[in-house]
Task: inverse folding
Protein backbone atom coordinates (compact mmCIF):
# COMPACT_ATOMS: atom_id res chain seq x y z
CA UNK A 1 0.00 0.00 0.00
CA UNK A 2 1.40 3.41 -1.01
CA UNK A 3 0.60 6.69 0.74
CA UNK A 4 -0.63 9.52 -1.46
CA UNK A 5 1.36 12.78 -1.64
CA UNK A 6 -1.50 14.37 0.34
CA UNK A 7 -1.13 11.79 3.13
CA UNK A 8 2.62 12.36 3.26
CA UNK A 9 2.14 16.13 3.33
CA UNK A 10 -0.37 15.79 6.19
CA UNK A 11 2.01 13.57 8.11
CA UNK A 12 4.87 16.05 7.70
CA UNK A 13 2.70 19.05 8.68
CA UNK A 14 0.42 17.59 11.34
CA UNK A 15 2.46 14.63 12.55
CA UNK A 16 -0.19 11.97 11.94
CA UNK A 17 -2.60 10.45 9.47
CA UNK A 18 -5.73 8.35 9.87
CA UNK A 19 -6.89 5.46 7.67
CA UNK A 20 -10.56 4.61 8.40
CA UNK A 21 -11.50 0.92 8.03
CA UNK A 22 -7.99 -0.09 6.88
CA UNK A 23 -8.73 -3.67 8.00
CA UNK A 24 -12.01 -5.51 7.35
CA UNK A 25 -14.44 -6.78 9.96
CA UNK A 26 -13.28 -10.36 9.31
CA UNK A 27 -9.64 -9.43 9.86
CA UNK A 28 -10.37 -7.51 13.05
CA UNK A 29 -12.67 -10.20 14.47
CA UNK A 30 -9.93 -12.83 14.50
CA UNK A 31 -7.46 -10.41 16.11
CA UNK A 32 -9.96 -9.40 18.79
CA UNK A 33 -10.70 -13.04 19.53
CA UNK A 34 -7.03 -13.93 19.87
CA UNK A 35 -6.37 -10.82 22.00
CA UNK A 36 -8.94 -12.06 24.52
CA UNK A 37 -7.16 -15.43 24.67
CA UNK A 38 -3.82 -13.72 25.22
CA UNK A 39 -5.25 -11.57 28.03
CA UNK A 40 -6.44 -14.74 29.79
CA UNK A 41 -2.94 -16.22 29.74
CA UNK A 42 -0.41 -15.94 32.53
CA UNK A 43 2.55 -14.74 30.45
CA UNK A 44 5.01 -12.15 31.87
CA UNK A 45 4.27 -10.08 28.74
CA UNK A 46 0.69 -9.45 29.98
CA UNK A 47 0.53 -6.45 32.35
CA UNK A 48 -2.51 -5.72 34.48
CA UNK A 49 -4.29 -2.79 36.15
CA UNK A 50 -4.30 -2.57 39.96
CA UNK A 51 -7.69 -4.35 39.74
CA UNK A 52 -6.24 -7.34 37.86
CA UNK A 53 -7.89 -6.36 34.56
CA UNK A 54 -5.55 -6.65 31.56
CA UNK A 55 -3.82 -3.42 30.58
CA UNK A 56 -1.18 -4.31 27.98
CA UNK A 57 0.05 -7.48 26.28
CA UNK A 58 3.53 -7.11 24.81
CA UNK A 59 5.17 -8.89 21.84
CA UNK A 60 2.13 -10.88 20.68
CA UNK A 61 3.65 -11.00 17.17
CA UNK A 62 6.32 -13.35 18.57
CA UNK A 63 3.92 -15.94 20.00
CA UNK A 64 0.64 -15.57 18.10
CA UNK A 65 0.17 -16.24 14.38
CA UNK A 66 -2.63 -13.71 13.75
CA UNK A 67 -0.61 -10.91 15.37
CA UNK A 68 2.52 -12.05 13.49
CA UNK A 69 0.56 -11.51 10.25
CA UNK A 70 -0.64 -8.09 11.47
CA UNK A 71 2.90 -7.05 12.42
CA UNK A 72 4.15 -7.86 8.92
CA UNK A 73 1.11 -6.56 7.10
CA UNK A 74 1.85 -4.57 3.93
CA UNK A 75 -0.86 -1.99 4.80
CA UNK A 76 1.24 -1.05 7.84
CA UNK A 77 4.81 -1.86 6.76
CA UNK A 78 4.86 -0.40 3.24
CA UNK A 79 3.83 3.16 4.23
CA UNK A 80 6.70 3.24 6.73
CA UNK A 81 9.22 1.86 4.23
CA UNK A 82 8.03 4.66 1.93
CA UNK A 83 8.43 7.38 4.61
CA UNK A 84 11.82 6.18 5.89
CA UNK A 85 13.20 5.08 2.50
CA UNK A 86 14.51 1.82 3.94
CA UNK A 87 13.44 -1.37 5.69
CA UNK A 88 11.79 -1.27 9.14
CA UNK A 89 11.89 -3.61 12.14
CA UNK A 90 9.52 -4.03 15.10
CA UNK A 91 10.72 -1.98 18.06
CA UNK A 92 7.61 -2.54 20.21
CA UNK A 93 4.33 -4.36 19.82
CA UNK A 94 1.53 -4.11 22.35
CA UNK A 95 -2.19 -4.71 22.69
CA UNK A 96 -3.65 -2.10 25.07
CA UNK A 97 -6.97 -3.03 26.66
CA UNK A 98 -8.32 0.19 28.24
CA UNK A 99 -11.38 -1.55 29.62
CA UNK A 100 -13.90 0.13 31.99
CA UNK A 101 -11.81 2.33 34.34
CA UNK A 102 -8.48 1.82 32.61
CA UNK A 103 -5.89 4.27 33.84
CA UNK A 104 -5.01 7.61 32.31
CA UNK A 105 -1.91 7.88 30.10
CA UNK A 106 -0.42 11.31 30.78
CA UNK A 107 0.84 13.63 28.00
CA UNK A 108 4.08 12.31 26.52
CA UNK A 109 6.18 11.73 23.43
CA UNK A 110 7.14 8.14 22.75
CA UNK A 111 10.48 9.02 21.22
CA UNK A 112 11.43 10.53 24.59
CA UNK A 113 11.32 7.04 26.06
CA UNK A 114 12.96 5.35 23.08
CA UNK A 115 15.87 7.81 23.20
CA UNK A 116 16.36 7.94 26.97
CA UNK A 117 15.69 4.30 27.84
CA UNK A 118 16.67 2.51 24.62
CA UNK A 119 19.30 4.74 23.00
CA UNK A 120 17.40 5.12 19.74
CA UNK A 121 19.51 7.58 17.70
CA UNK A 122 16.79 9.55 15.82
CA UNK A 123 12.97 9.76 15.81
CA UNK A 124 12.95 7.62 12.66
CA UNK A 125 10.38 5.24 14.16
CA UNK A 126 6.65 5.53 14.05
CA UNK A 127 3.62 4.53 16.07
CA UNK A 128 0.79 2.68 14.42
CA UNK A 129 -2.51 2.28 16.30
CA UNK A 130 -4.86 -0.40 14.93
CA UNK A 131 -8.34 -0.12 16.48
CA UNK A 132 -9.68 -3.50 17.67
CA UNK A 133 -12.92 -1.96 19.00
CA UNK A 134 -14.79 1.15 17.95
CA UNK A 135 -12.99 4.18 19.35
CA UNK A 136 -15.55 6.79 20.37
CA UNK A 137 -15.23 10.21 21.96
CA UNK A 138 -16.46 8.70 25.24
CA UNK A 139 -14.37 5.53 25.68
CA UNK A 140 -10.91 6.94 26.25
CA UNK A 141 -9.75 7.91 22.76
CA UNK A 142 -6.13 8.76 22.07
CA UNK A 143 -5.69 12.55 22.03
CA UNK A 144 -2.99 14.08 19.84
CA UNK A 145 -1.55 17.60 19.64
CA UNK A 146 -1.08 18.25 15.90
CA UNK A 147 2.26 19.84 14.88
CA UNK A 148 3.84 19.07 18.27
CA UNK A 149 6.30 16.66 16.56
CA UNK A 150 8.14 19.71 15.16
CA UNK A 151 9.46 20.68 18.60
CA UNK A 152 11.98 17.86 18.89
CA UNK A 153 12.33 16.00 22.17
CA UNK A 154 10.85 18.13 24.94
CA UNK A 155 11.95 18.17 28.57
CA UNK A 156 10.07 15.51 30.52
CA UNK A 157 9.82 13.96 33.95
CA UNK A 158 9.88 10.23 34.64
CA UNK A 159 6.39 9.52 36.00
CA UNK A 160 6.35 6.22 37.86
CA UNK A 161 3.39 6.99 40.14
CA UNK A 162 0.27 8.29 38.38
CA UNK A 163 0.20 5.58 35.68
CA UNK A 164 0.93 1.89 36.07
CA UNK A 165 3.53 2.02 33.25
CA UNK A 166 6.54 4.32 33.73
CA UNK A 167 6.45 7.23 31.26
CA UNK A 168 8.45 10.36 30.57
CA UNK A 169 5.64 12.93 30.85
CA UNK A 170 5.38 16.64 29.95
CA UNK A 171 4.37 19.40 32.35
CA UNK A 172 1.12 21.38 32.08
CA UNK A 173 2.75 24.58 30.85
CA UNK A 174 4.33 22.76 27.89
CA UNK A 175 1.08 20.97 26.99
CA UNK A 176 -0.87 24.24 27.22
CA UNK A 177 1.60 26.03 24.93
CA UNK A 178 1.59 23.23 22.35
CA UNK A 179 -2.23 23.00 22.37
CA UNK A 180 -2.52 26.75 21.79
CA UNK A 181 -0.49 26.24 18.63
CA UNK A 182 -1.84 22.94 17.28
CA UNK A 183 -5.11 22.27 19.10
CA UNK A 184 -6.05 18.78 20.28
CA UNK A 185 -7.63 16.06 18.13
CA UNK A 186 -9.07 12.70 19.18
CA UNK A 187 -9.54 10.56 16.03
CA UNK A 188 -12.46 8.17 16.36
CA UNK A 189 -13.54 5.33 14.12
CA UNK A 190 -14.70 1.80 13.50
CA UNK A 191 -12.70 -1.31 14.39
CA UNK A 192 -10.00 -1.82 11.76
CA UNK A 193 -9.20 1.89 11.47
CA UNK A 194 -5.51 2.81 11.66
CA UNK A 195 -3.81 5.89 13.08
CA UNK A 196 -0.13 6.47 12.32
CA UNK A 197 1.78 9.17 14.20
CA UNK A 198 5.27 10.56 14.54
CA UNK A 199 7.45 9.39 17.44
CA UNK A 200 7.66 12.99 18.72
CA UNK A 201 3.93 13.74 18.50
CA UNK A 202 2.62 14.64 21.97
CA UNK A 203 -0.31 12.43 22.99
CA UNK A 204 -2.32 11.24 26.02
CA UNK A 205 -5.49 9.38 26.78
CA UNK A 206 -8.12 9.71 29.51
CA UNK A 207 -9.42 6.69 31.42
CA UNK A 208 -12.28 4.76 29.86
CA UNK A 209 -15.14 5.21 32.33
CA UNK A 210 -17.69 3.55 30.01
CA UNK A 211 -18.56 -0.15 29.70
CA UNK A 212 -17.50 0.00 26.03
CA UNK A 213 -14.14 -1.75 25.51
CA UNK A 214 -11.38 0.10 23.66
CA UNK A 215 -8.63 -2.32 22.66
CA UNK A 216 -5.90 -0.91 20.41
CA UNK A 217 -2.84 -2.66 18.98
CA UNK A 218 0.17 -0.34 19.01
CA UNK A 219 3.07 -1.21 16.75
CA UNK A 220 6.26 0.82 16.78
CA UNK A 221 8.23 0.23 13.61
CA UNK A 222 11.75 1.68 13.41
CA UNK A 223 14.01 2.29 10.40
CA UNK A 224 16.58 -0.53 10.44
CA UNK A 225 19.58 1.85 10.30
CA UNK A 226 18.14 3.65 13.38
CA UNK A 227 18.04 0.60 15.67
CA UNK A 228 18.38 1.01 19.43
CA UNK A 229 21.76 0.96 21.16
CA UNK A 230 20.91 0.52 24.89
CA UNK A 231 19.28 -2.58 26.30
CA UNK A 232 17.79 -1.49 29.63
CA UNK A 233 14.30 -2.96 29.14
CA UNK A 234 13.28 -6.59 28.62
CA UNK A 235 13.67 -7.60 24.96
CA UNK A 236 9.92 -8.25 24.71
CA UNK A 237 9.34 -4.53 25.48
CA UNK A 238 12.15 -3.09 23.31
CA UNK A 239 13.06 -5.67 20.70
CA UNK A 240 16.65 -6.44 19.68
CA UNK A 241 16.01 -8.26 16.41
CA UNK A 242 16.78 -5.62 13.80
CA UNK A 243 16.06 -7.77 10.73
CA UNK A 244 13.90 -5.86 8.24
CA UNK A 245 10.29 -7.03 8.17
CA UNK A 246 9.38 -8.87 4.97
CA UNK A 247 5.72 -7.99 4.32
CA UNK A 248 3.27 -10.88 4.01
CA UNK A 249 0.65 -11.01 1.25
CA UNK A 250 -2.14 -8.45 1.54
CA UNK A 251 -4.69 -11.25 2.01
CA UNK A 252 -2.65 -13.31 4.49
CA UNK A 253 -4.53 -12.15 7.58
CA UNK A 254 -7.88 -12.58 5.83
CA UNK A 255 -6.93 -16.12 4.79
CA UNK A 256 -5.93 -16.88 8.40
CA UNK A 257 -9.24 -15.50 9.66
CA UNK A 258 -11.24 -17.62 7.22
CA UNK A 259 -9.22 -20.75 7.98
CA UNK A 260 -9.98 -20.23 11.67
CA UNK A 261 -13.68 -19.67 11.02
CA UNK A 262 -14.07 -16.61 13.20
CA UNK A 263 -17.28 -14.95 12.17
CA UNK A 264 -17.17 -11.23 11.45
CA UNK A 265 -19.26 -9.24 13.89
CA UNK B 1 -39.77 30.41 29.56
CA UNK B 2 -42.10 27.48 28.83
CA UNK B 3 -40.99 24.03 27.72
CA UNK B 4 -42.60 22.64 24.57
CA UNK B 5 -44.61 19.39 24.74
CA UNK B 6 -41.74 17.77 22.79
CA UNK B 7 -39.20 18.87 25.43
CA UNK B 8 -41.42 17.53 28.21
CA UNK B 9 -41.89 14.26 26.35
CA UNK B 10 -38.12 13.94 25.86
CA UNK B 11 -37.51 14.63 29.53
CA UNK B 12 -40.04 11.98 30.59
CA UNK B 13 -38.67 9.37 28.14
CA UNK B 14 -34.94 10.08 28.19
CA UNK B 15 -34.53 11.78 31.55
CA UNK B 16 -32.89 14.98 30.24
CA UNK B 17 -33.10 17.84 27.80
CA UNK B 18 -30.54 20.20 26.37
CA UNK B 19 -30.95 23.92 25.58
CA UNK B 20 -28.06 25.15 23.38
CA UNK B 21 -27.01 28.79 23.96
CA UNK B 22 -29.73 29.41 26.58
CA UNK B 23 -27.63 32.30 27.95
CA UNK B 24 -25.84 34.88 25.80
CA UNK B 25 -22.08 35.47 25.63
CA UNK B 26 -22.48 38.68 27.67
CA UNK B 27 -24.39 36.87 30.41
CA UNK B 28 -21.87 34.04 30.58
CA UNK B 29 -18.83 36.33 30.50
CA UNK B 30 -19.84 38.08 33.72
CA UNK B 31 -20.54 34.76 35.46
CA UNK B 32 -17.21 33.30 34.35
CA UNK B 33 -15.41 36.39 35.58
CA UNK B 34 -17.08 36.29 38.98
CA UNK B 35 -16.47 32.53 39.26
CA UNK B 36 -12.73 33.15 38.92
CA UNK B 37 -12.90 35.71 41.73
CA UNK B 38 -14.79 33.27 43.94
CA UNK B 39 -12.20 30.52 43.27
CA UNK B 40 -9.45 32.89 44.44
CA UNK B 41 -11.19 33.49 47.77
CA UNK B 42 -10.54 31.55 50.94
CA UNK B 43 -14.15 30.72 51.83
CA UNK B 44 -15.04 27.32 53.38
CA UNK B 45 -17.51 26.91 50.50
CA UNK B 46 -14.60 26.60 48.02
CA UNK B 47 -13.29 23.01 47.82
CA UNK B 48 -10.01 22.13 46.14
CA UNK B 49 -8.30 19.25 44.34
CA UNK B 50 -5.37 17.50 46.03
CA UNK B 51 -3.18 19.89 43.99
CA UNK B 52 -4.86 22.99 45.45
CA UNK B 53 -6.68 23.82 42.20
CA UNK B 54 -10.34 24.79 42.74
CA UNK B 55 -12.82 21.94 42.33
CA UNK B 56 -16.19 23.21 43.55
CA UNK B 57 -17.55 26.45 45.00
CA UNK B 58 -20.83 26.00 46.90
CA UNK B 59 -23.69 28.42 47.51
CA UNK B 60 -22.41 31.32 45.36
CA UNK B 61 -26.03 32.50 44.93
CA UNK B 62 -25.98 33.48 48.62
CA UNK B 63 -22.90 35.73 48.46
CA UNK B 64 -22.55 36.85 44.83
CA UNK B 65 -25.07 39.03 42.98
CA UNK B 66 -24.47 37.62 39.46
CA UNK B 67 -24.99 34.07 40.70
CA UNK B 68 -28.03 35.16 42.72
CA UNK B 69 -29.55 36.41 39.45
CA UNK B 70 -28.65 33.13 37.71
CA UNK B 71 -30.18 31.06 40.51
CA UNK B 72 -33.47 32.93 40.18
CA UNK B 73 -33.41 33.15 36.40
CA UNK B 74 -36.77 32.48 34.69
CA UNK B 75 -35.06 30.43 31.95
CA UNK B 76 -34.11 27.92 34.68
CA UNK B 77 -36.86 28.31 37.28
CA UNK B 78 -39.97 28.43 35.08
CA UNK B 79 -39.37 25.08 33.29
CA UNK B 80 -39.10 23.41 36.69
CA UNK B 81 -42.21 25.11 38.06
CA UNK B 82 -43.91 23.78 34.92
CA UNK B 83 -42.65 20.19 35.40
CA UNK B 84 -43.36 20.01 39.16
CA UNK B 85 -46.56 22.09 39.08
CA UNK B 86 -45.51 24.13 42.10
CA UNK B 87 -42.80 26.49 43.34
CA UNK B 88 -39.17 25.36 43.65
CA UNK B 89 -36.36 26.21 46.08
CA UNK B 90 -32.58 25.90 45.77
CA UNK B 91 -31.39 22.62 47.29
CA UNK B 92 -27.79 22.92 46.10
CA UNK B 93 -25.78 25.39 44.05
CA UNK B 94 -22.22 24.72 42.94
CA UNK B 95 -19.67 25.91 40.41
CA UNK B 96 -17.53 22.94 39.36
CA UNK B 97 -14.16 23.82 37.86
CA UNK B 98 -12.85 20.60 36.27
CA UNK B 99 -9.60 22.26 35.19
CA UNK B 100 -6.65 20.36 33.67
CA UNK B 101 -6.49 16.99 35.53
CA UNK B 102 -9.67 17.41 37.51
CA UNK B 103 -10.74 14.21 39.17
CA UNK B 104 -13.17 11.66 37.80
CA UNK B 105 -16.77 11.67 39.07
CA UNK B 106 -17.85 8.03 39.18
CA UNK B 107 -21.25 6.81 37.94
CA UNK B 108 -24.00 7.88 40.32
CA UNK B 109 -27.51 9.20 40.75
CA UNK B 110 -27.84 12.48 42.62
CA UNK B 111 -31.16 11.61 44.18
CA UNK B 112 -29.41 8.69 45.91
CA UNK B 113 -27.42 11.25 47.92
CA UNK B 114 -30.35 13.61 48.48
CA UNK B 115 -32.47 10.75 49.82
CA UNK B 116 -29.83 9.00 51.95
CA UNK B 117 -27.97 12.04 53.29
CA UNK B 118 -30.67 14.73 53.26
CA UNK B 119 -33.95 12.83 53.68
CA UNK B 120 -35.50 14.21 50.49
CA UNK B 121 -38.85 12.38 50.19
CA UNK B 122 -39.18 11.97 46.38
CA UNK B 123 -37.01 12.59 43.29
CA UNK B 124 -39.00 15.78 42.66
CA UNK B 125 -35.83 17.84 42.29
CA UNK B 126 -33.80 18.41 39.21
CA UNK B 127 -30.24 19.13 38.17
CA UNK B 128 -29.49 22.04 35.91
CA UNK B 129 -26.02 22.34 34.37
CA UNK B 130 -25.15 25.76 32.95
CA UNK B 131 -21.98 25.64 30.82
CA UNK B 132 -19.53 28.45 31.69
CA UNK B 133 -16.95 27.23 29.16
CA UNK B 134 -17.37 25.28 25.94
CA UNK B 135 -17.97 21.64 26.81
CA UNK B 136 -16.26 19.45 24.24
CA UNK B 137 -15.93 15.70 23.85
CA UNK B 138 -12.32 15.98 25.02
CA UNK B 139 -12.48 18.18 28.16
CA UNK B 140 -14.35 15.95 30.57
CA UNK B 141 -17.98 16.27 29.46
CA UNK B 142 -20.81 15.01 31.63
CA UNK B 143 -21.90 11.56 30.44
CA UNK B 144 -25.53 10.50 30.91
CA UNK B 145 -27.28 7.16 30.54
CA UNK B 146 -30.64 7.98 28.89
CA UNK B 147 -33.72 6.26 30.39
CA UNK B 148 -31.81 5.25 33.54
CA UNK B 149 -34.04 7.54 35.64
CA UNK B 150 -36.86 5.00 35.20
CA UNK B 151 -35.15 2.48 37.47
CA UNK B 152 -35.77 4.35 40.71
CA UNK B 153 -33.01 4.61 43.27
CA UNK B 154 -30.44 1.91 42.57
CA UNK B 155 -28.24 0.16 45.13
CA UNK B 156 -25.04 2.15 45.62
CA UNK B 157 -21.85 2.20 47.66
CA UNK B 158 -20.54 5.22 49.51
CA UNK B 159 -17.28 6.06 47.72
CA UNK B 160 -15.08 8.26 49.88
CA UNK B 161 -11.74 7.28 48.31
CA UNK B 162 -11.60 7.51 44.49
CA UNK B 163 -13.10 11.00 44.26
CA UNK B 164 -12.43 13.98 46.50
CA UNK B 165 -16.17 14.44 47.18
CA UNK B 166 -18.06 11.57 48.86
CA UNK B 167 -20.56 10.00 46.46
CA UNK B 168 -22.95 7.07 46.45
CA UNK B 169 -21.64 5.26 43.34
CA UNK B 170 -22.99 2.39 41.22
CA UNK B 171 -21.12 -0.83 40.44
CA UNK B 172 -19.88 -1.78 36.97
CA UNK B 173 -22.48 -4.49 36.40
CA UNK B 174 -25.33 -2.01 36.97
CA UNK B 175 -23.77 0.63 34.71
CA UNK B 176 -23.15 -1.95 31.96
CA UNK B 177 -26.76 -3.16 32.12
CA UNK B 178 -28.18 0.39 32.02
CA UNK B 179 -25.90 1.39 29.12
CA UNK B 180 -27.02 -1.65 27.12
CA UNK B 181 -30.56 -0.37 27.44
CA UNK B 182 -30.11 3.39 27.05
CA UNK B 183 -26.64 3.96 25.60
CA UNK B 184 -24.43 6.80 26.82
CA UNK B 185 -24.61 10.42 25.66
CA UNK B 186 -22.23 13.30 26.37
CA UNK B 187 -23.95 16.56 25.39
CA UNK B 188 -21.47 19.18 24.20
CA UNK B 189 -22.00 22.85 23.42
CA UNK B 190 -21.03 26.48 23.64
CA UNK B 191 -20.83 28.46 26.88
CA UNK B 192 -24.36 29.41 27.98
CA UNK B 193 -25.85 26.05 27.00
CA UNK B 194 -28.02 24.37 29.61
CA UNK B 195 -28.57 20.70 30.38
CA UNK B 196 -31.43 19.71 32.69
CA UNK B 197 -31.64 16.14 33.98
CA UNK B 198 -33.72 14.02 36.33
CA UNK B 199 -32.44 13.42 39.86
CA UNK B 200 -32.34 9.68 39.20
CA UNK B 201 -30.53 9.88 35.85
CA UNK B 202 -27.23 7.96 36.10
CA UNK B 203 -24.25 10.14 35.16
CA UNK B 204 -20.46 10.42 35.48
CA UNK B 205 -17.62 12.44 34.09
CA UNK B 206 -14.03 11.59 33.19
CA UNK B 207 -11.12 13.80 34.27
CA UNK B 208 -10.27 16.75 32.07
CA UNK B 209 -6.76 15.96 30.81
CA UNK B 210 -6.74 18.92 28.38
CA UNK B 211 -5.68 22.54 29.03
CA UNK B 212 -9.23 23.65 28.08
CA UNK B 213 -11.19 24.68 31.19
CA UNK B 214 -14.64 23.18 31.73
CA UNK B 215 -16.48 25.15 34.41
CA UNK B 216 -20.13 24.24 34.91
CA UNK B 217 -22.65 25.71 37.35
CA UNK B 218 -24.88 23.00 38.80
CA UNK B 219 -28.15 24.07 40.38
CA UNK B 220 -30.41 21.61 42.07
CA UNK B 221 -33.93 22.97 42.36
CA UNK B 222 -36.44 21.03 44.45
CA UNK B 223 -40.25 21.21 44.57
CA UNK B 224 -41.09 23.15 47.71
CA UNK B 225 -43.46 20.46 49.06
CA UNK B 226 -40.60 17.93 48.68
CA UNK B 227 -38.09 19.73 50.88
CA UNK B 228 -35.41 17.80 52.77
CA UNK B 229 -36.01 16.43 56.25
CA UNK B 230 -32.50 15.49 57.50
CA UNK B 231 -29.77 18.02 58.14
CA UNK B 232 -26.52 16.02 58.10
CA UNK B 233 -24.58 18.27 55.73
CA UNK B 234 -23.60 21.95 56.13
CA UNK B 235 -26.46 24.22 55.12
CA UNK B 236 -24.33 25.71 52.31
CA UNK B 237 -24.21 22.22 50.74
CA UNK B 238 -27.86 21.20 51.34
CA UNK B 239 -29.88 24.37 51.86
CA UNK B 240 -32.61 24.71 54.51
CA UNK B 241 -34.39 27.77 53.17
CA UNK B 242 -37.46 26.28 51.50
CA UNK B 243 -38.98 29.60 50.35
CA UNK B 244 -40.11 29.36 46.72
CA UNK B 245 -37.79 31.20 44.31
CA UNK B 246 -39.39 34.32 42.83
CA UNK B 247 -37.97 34.56 39.29
CA UNK B 248 -36.16 37.78 38.38
CA UNK B 249 -36.77 39.55 35.06
CA UNK B 250 -35.48 37.75 31.99
CA UNK B 251 -33.01 40.60 31.32
CA UNK B 252 -31.80 41.01 34.92
CA UNK B 253 -28.54 39.13 34.44
CA UNK B 254 -27.87 40.94 31.16
CA UNK B 255 -28.47 44.30 32.83
CA UNK B 256 -26.06 43.32 35.61
CA UNK B 257 -23.44 42.27 33.05
CA UNK B 258 -23.74 45.56 31.17
CA UNK B 259 -23.63 47.60 34.37
CA UNK B 260 -20.42 45.83 35.30
CA UNK B 261 -18.90 46.37 31.85
CA UNK B 262 -17.59 42.83 31.38
CA UNK B 263 -16.88 42.39 27.68
CA UNK B 264 -18.28 39.33 25.99
CA UNK B 265 -15.57 37.02 24.72
Result:
Amino acid sequence: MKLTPEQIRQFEEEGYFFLPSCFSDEEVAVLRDEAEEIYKSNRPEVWREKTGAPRTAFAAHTYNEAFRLLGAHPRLVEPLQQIFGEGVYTHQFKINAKAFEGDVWQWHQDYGTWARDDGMPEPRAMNIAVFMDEVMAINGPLMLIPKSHKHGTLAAEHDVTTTSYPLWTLDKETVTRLAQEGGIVAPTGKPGSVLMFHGNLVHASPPNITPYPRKIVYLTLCAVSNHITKFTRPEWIAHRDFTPIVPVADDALLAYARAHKVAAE
About this structure: The CA atoms of residues 111 and 199 of chain A lie 5 Å apart. The longest helix of chain A spans residues 25-40. The interface with chain B takes residues 100-101, 104, 106-107, 137-138, 140, 143, 172, 175-176, 179-180, 184, 186, 204-207, 209-212 of chain A (CB under 8 Å). The mean pLDDT of chain A is 92.
